[in-house]
Amino acid sequence: MNTLIIISVLPIVLLYLGLYKAQKALLPVTIVGMLVALGAAVMQWNDNAQPIYHGMMLFNNFSIAFSVVSIISTILILMLSKGYFEKISSHIAEYYAIILFSLVGIVVMVSYHNLTMLFVGIEIMSVSLYILAGIRKNDFASNESALKYFLMGAFSTGFLLFGITLIYGASGSFDLDGIRDYVLSHSHNIDPIFYTGVLLIIVGLCFKVGAAPFHFWTPDVYEGAPSLITAYMSTVVKAAGFAAFLRLFSASFSSIAAFWSPVLMVITIITLFIGNITALYQQSFKRMLAFSSISHAGYLMFAIVALGAASANAVFVYATAYSIASIIAFGALVLVRQQTGSDNVDGFNGLARKNPFLAFVLTVSMLSLAGIPLTAGFIGKFYMFSGALLQYKYIMVIVAVVNAIISIFYYFRVIIAMYFRSAERSEVLIPAYYKFVLGFSALVTIAIGVYPALISSLI
Amino acid sequence: MTVSILIFLPIVAALLTLLFKNEMAKHVAMFFAVVELAIALYFLSGFVPDASLQYSIDAPWIPQFGVYFKAGIDGISMVMVLLTTALVPLIILTTYEHQYKNAKAFYALILFMQAGLLTVFTAFDGFLFYVGWEAALIPIYFICALWGGENRIRINIKFFIYTFAGSLFMLIGIIYLYLQTPSKDYDLQHFYNLSLDASHQSWVFIAFFLAFAIKMPIFPFHTWQPDTYTEAPTAGTMMLSGIMLKMGIYGVIRWLIPNAPLGFLNWVNVAIILSIIGIVYASLIAFKQIDGKRLVAYSSIAHVGLIAAGIFAWNIYGLQGAMIQMVSHGINVVGMFFIWDIISRRLGTRDISKLGGIAKVAPQFSIAFLIIVLGTVALPLTNGFVGEFLLLRGVFNRGIITAAIAGTTIILGAVYMLRMYKNVMQGELNELTATFTDIKGSEKLALGIICALIIIIGVYPQPLLHLSEAAVTNLVNTVSHKFITTKF
């Protein structure tokens, strides 16, 4: 649990650093602090965890694995942000601090053992994100993004809170085990209020993870926010959202799966189609990534619909693969945008000739997102398909296959632009930090793809 | 020594090729391709042609999924390994006159593809098979799209999506079979041991069939093929038609029919009818082609249709015919595409109607061309004859009418191939063809090897047939046994 404390204290330290104008120290201190937090999390691995803080939190392997992935992804994104926030505004310390505050929320979200903590975690994370989305104060799109996100987020939190209340009303408990016991002991006469509560929680959480039909805020928010914030929202936040989702449903609601799984199945199918088909029509790379993130939410949903022993692992592997590939994509987007000034896919034309490295890592990322073997993305999809087939969800698998085929079109459009189209362009300068992050991420993507045993049996 | 060296050497070679300068790349690639062939020949020298699995490796890969790196060589795989390892250096040799932009990437991709192909041909684990299947697809996509003709982007995305779609359904089939195995692993032998009921097997059959039918391709899944073959750089076309389409045929023999024998029985008539429609349809279209490369592409569909029909007839003749015809077709089609590569490089056109009389200025070229044409039209004492004879003998078991229609491939093939030869090589020289110079150097060497193989296999096919005989017999007996024992 030291992880949570370290990550909570760290942003306060950073704010003091900002106060004393020690801007050069910000990034190193953040990264060192997060590495310490990472170490603290890893130390507790296989520690036979028990609920702590009066049953509020449970820092088990599931929490540790997701905390570690969230922390690593955040470190990678922060390394990409060197020199990025400076361009946006002069108050840099605040950005680091706010991102870390949202990370606190995320750690709570992946380790709650009580619905109040789920709510608190989501709120800590969301409030930080509202600010981050609007961080470019003088930019119209960024303001629009923040406002939309705030209104939609507050709205969805309302649903979530209402759901939690109803469940408390029926079961008399906020505790995950308490709710589970209620469901098991009243298996034939569960209060209808309880079911209503479950549905409202589904609505609230689907808002947060951007699953259709509650997805409509994502494209505008993702497009308006600064690219690296978008990267953060669509990777770390989404992974944590699914971790929270899965934790609740596998711990408390697994015995009434017959009730909610058809609902989630419909949501999954709609999400896949909406995400993929809309992504097809996007000219902007950033917007395309936003819609593709919706479709990936659909794939991640598979693990919850086909709830089983392997679900936690499936979400973990998929979220890791997806996060790392997305970080590459957003990193490349930032670089190319700096040169061409636009988010369009056309901006990538002819990139391979001048920047073979950048083109290669982005290709790895696109192949991984498309789920081609020997990349991490394939292992993630493989997990999802296996889990769904195990539960005889054949229709879902067919839908997923059709969508995987559709997604090839837009992911390959980027590859085609980079390799097969030509354009007059000069070389994109890649700072050393970027080289490290992009190279590292590509390496991890391939390593997981070739030898998935690295992470596939962690949880 | 295990088969893993065959799989990993090309990957290492591909990475090493990238380290050299572009001018050196083809020599480096050639060196490794020849080393690979030498290893394959070494394996051949110690190979016992019974039905057993040899040089096998069985290492845990993702043990918690039940995925093992299980690969080996039996009689069927041996033939495929020889085909792959022999054709890759030959294909590299045919590119010696080309100057590719960024050549090291080109050769690295070819070697990487070879690794994927060899994985497919030696894998005895479903997951490994699938990974190899896709690993062969990515490099050829880049080869075709980077060095191809003008419409390459649109055509290759179609090619990629078509084949990827098929293989995803196969993946579903593989995972489904995996979930049925009692030991929860992907071992092919455990797949064989399953006894699902007929309706489930039908679904498994369809899932696998889509992938293989698209890859081969069988009518009506062939629409990507002529465009892709025509627009790809010649070496890419050769890799596709010479080796890659054999992945589909091999898949039918090893993964489709034995895994879903009852599904096969349900669908066998449809499969044979589609194959035979493909034969006649592609032959008729080949008549009308004026682009030589496209003509060869359609003739390839016709030949593959016959191979598929021979396999779906499912008897030892048909299967043995398929085995040897895979080799022969690989050699002939590489030769044929090389011929058209030479013509188009010299004259800048592949339009048959603009050519004529080349035999007068290039006697050596015309002899090589003739031998390859004769091999393709299955003249006795050429390699094509052995295979097509056995295939038709196999199809005959399905009924005389089927065999008769399938047999039209030989007649139709002879007509369009010989007509092509006549129009290109004979008749009067025109301004364009008068400039044609005879083959020399690496071209002569490559065509010499191809012609020698055509004649040697045609005259004395026995060693090649003997290699796969025991394995094929064993496979046919196993599946026939399942036809009888499994309840409907």
UniProtKB/TrEMBL annotation, chain A:
<feature type="transmembrane region" description="Helical">
    <location>
        <begin position="193"/>
        <end position="217"/>
    </location>
</feature>
<feature type="transmembrane region" description="Helical">
    <location>
        <begin position="392"/>
        <end position="412"/>
    </location>
</feature>
<keyword id="KW-0472">Membrane</keyword>
<dbReference type="InterPro" id="IPR001750">
    <property type="entry name" value="ND/Mrp_TM"/>
</dbReference>
<comment type="similarity">
    <text>Belongs to the complex I subunit 2 family.</text>
</comment>
<feature type="transmembrane region" description="Helical">
    <location>
        <begin position="57"/>
        <end position="80"/>
    </location>
</feature>
<comment type="function">
    <text>NDH-1 shuttles electrons from NADH, via FMN and iron-sulfur (Fe-S) centers, to quinones in the respiratory chain. The immediate electron acceptor for the enzyme in this species is believed to be a menaquinone. Couples the redox reaction to proton translocation (for every two electrons transferred, four hydrogen ions are translocated across the cytoplasmic membrane), and thus conserves the redox energy in a proton gradient.</text>
</comment>
<keyword id="KW-0812">Transmembrane</keyword>
<feature type="transmembrane region" description="Helical">
    <location>
        <begin position="288"/>
        <end position="309"/>
    </location>
</feature>
<dbReference type="GO" id="GO:0048038">
    <property type="term" value="F:quinone binding"/>
</dbReference>
<dbReference type="GO" id="GO:0012505">
    <property type="term" value="C:endomembrane system"/>
</dbReference>
<dbReference type="GO" id="GO:0050136">
    <property type="term" value="F:NADH dehydrogenase (quinone) (non-electrogenic) activity"/>
</dbReference>
<feature type="transmembrane region" description="Helical">
    <location>
        <begin position="256"/>
        <end position="281"/>
    </location>
</feature>
<feature type="transmembrane region" description="Helical">
    <location>
        <begin position="229"/>
        <end position="250"/>
    </location>
</feature>
<keyword id="KW-0874">Quinone</keyword>
<dbReference type="InterPro" id="IPR010096">
    <property type="entry name" value="NADH-Q_OxRdtase_suN/2"/>
</dbReference>
<keyword id="KW-0813">Transport</keyword>
<feature type="transmembrane region" description="Helical">
    <location>
        <begin position="357"/>
        <end position="380"/>
    </location>
</feature>
<feature type="transmembrane region" description="Helical">
    <location>
        <begin position="92"/>
        <end position="112"/>
    </location>
</feature>
<keyword id="KW-1278">Translocase</keyword>
<comment type="subunit">
    <text>NDH-1 is composed of 14 different subunits. Subunits NuoA, H, J, K, L, M, N constitute the membrane sector of the complex.</text>
</comment>
<feature type="transmembrane region" description="Helical">
    <location>
        <begin position="118"/>
        <end position="135"/>
    </location>
</feature>
From TrEMBL, chain B:
<feature type="transmembrane region" description="Helical">
    <location>
        <begin position="159"/>
        <end position="179"/>
    </location>
</feature>
<dbReference type="Pfam" id="PF00361">
    <property type="entry name" value="Proton_antipo_M"/>
</dbReference>
<dbReference type="InterPro" id="IPR010227">
    <property type="entry name" value="NADH_Q_OxRdtase_chainM/4"/>
</dbReference>
<dbReference type="GO" id="GO:0008137">
    <property type="term" value="F:NADH dehydrogenase (ubiquinone) activity"/>
</dbReference>
<dbReference type="InterPro" id="IPR003918">
    <property type="entry name" value="NADH_UbQ_OxRdtase"/>
</dbReference>
<feature type="transmembrane region" description="Helical">
    <location>
        <begin position="296"/>
        <end position="317"/>
    </location>
</feature>
<protein>
    <submittedName>
        <fullName>NADH-quinone oxidoreductase subunit M</fullName>
    </submittedName>
</protein>
<dbReference type="GO" id="GO:0003954">
    <property type="term" value="F:NADH dehydrogenase activity"/>
</dbReference>
<comment type="similarity">
    <text>Belongs to the complex I subunit 4 family.</text>
</comment>
<keyword id="KW-1133">Transmembrane helix</keyword>
<feature type="transmembrane region" description="Helical">
    <location>
        <begin position="399"/>
        <end position="418"/>
    </location>
</feature>
<dbReference type="GO" id="GO:0016020">
    <property type="term" value="C:membrane"/>
</dbReference>
<keyword id="KW-0812">Transmembrane</keyword>
<feature type="transmembrane region" description="Helical">
    <location>
        <begin position="68"/>
        <end position="93"/>
    </location>
</feature>
<dbReference type="InterPro" id="IPR001750">
    <property type="entry name" value="ND/Mrp_TM"/>
</dbReference>
<feature type="transmembrane region" description="Helical">
    <location>
        <begin position="263"/>
        <end position="284"/>
    </location>
</feature>
<dbReference type="GO" id="GO:0015990">
    <property type="term" value="P:electron transport coupled proton transport"/>
</dbReference>
<feature type="transmembrane region" description="Helical">
    <location>
        <begin position="445"/>
        <end position="465"/>
    </location>
</feature>
<feature type="transmembrane region" description="Helical">
    <location>
        <begin position="203"/>
        <end position="224"/>
    </location>
</feature>
<feature type="transmembrane region" description="Helical">
    <location>
        <begin position="323"/>
        <end position="343"/>
    </location>
</feature>
<dbReference type="GO" id="GO:0048039">
    <property type="term" value="F:ubiquinone binding"/>
</dbReference>
<feature type="transmembrane region" description="Helical">
    <location>
        <begin position="355"/>
        <end position="379"/>
    </location>
</feature>
